[in-house]
Amino acid sequence: LGPTFYRGGGGDDDDDGARFRSGGGGKRNRGDGGEGGELESTLGRRLDGRAAVVVLRVEGEDRGDDSPGEATTAKAKANANAPTTTRYLVQRKSSDYPIPAFRGAVCLFGGNAEPADADPLATLRRELGEELPPSLAEAVFSADGAGLKLVGTSTHSHSARLMGRDEPYAFLCACYEARVPSASVTDGVLDSREGSYALLTREQLLNDERYAWGYDAVMSRYLGRDVRHFCDGATVTREDDDRLKDWTPPPE
């Protein structure tokens, strides 16, 4: 499988950071048609799952408290030179998520492949269409933006103990990066959707958060520094991107 570049070990239950939380609803975590039913089907693939996810960078200018209507020429010039603020939009697993070890942990947007998905981008487009508001999902694939960039391919292996099951589970993961403007991510937009969201800084991701599904390793590599909290029982191994050519998952 190639060299292992991160192995989970330890971690605690810190759960800090700014959040956006939707009003009511949310995906069901158990039962047919809910997240639990989908998860059961996915775990049935045992050591041959597939997933496509995205590191969602939200970029905008920090313009302070000035109102545009009151800005003087001097203020306008200062605002034009204001530093760009980058945050990251992630999903936070619910308190009743079917895998207890991942409850309250953050996770990258995206999800598991289905047999009809021709490639990782098809999986990612379908999953983001289910998880994000349409305008934000389209911004991820926008041709006039920075565009999607493949940042790595890896195998994520999870012990049976971590899964709370009789068998371990592993999946091949295609991870992308997308940059979207801060104007596309607002309280109002996210409040209309299901689920729980967190909009976090680089330091919060590195120091405060726990991660689901081995994404602690992905974010450590992406951010250029080890995150503080790794998940015990998860091992992530780098892979050659050519492995993504065989994307169709096995029958459930």
Automatic annotation (TrEMBL):
Q: Where is the composition biased (Low complexity)?
A: 71-83
- Its protein name is Nudix hydrolase domain-containing protein
Please give the residue ranges the record annotates as the region Disordered. 1-44, 60-83
Q: Which InterPro entries match?
A: NUDIX_hydrolase-like_dom_sf
Q: Which organism is it from?
A: Odontella aurita
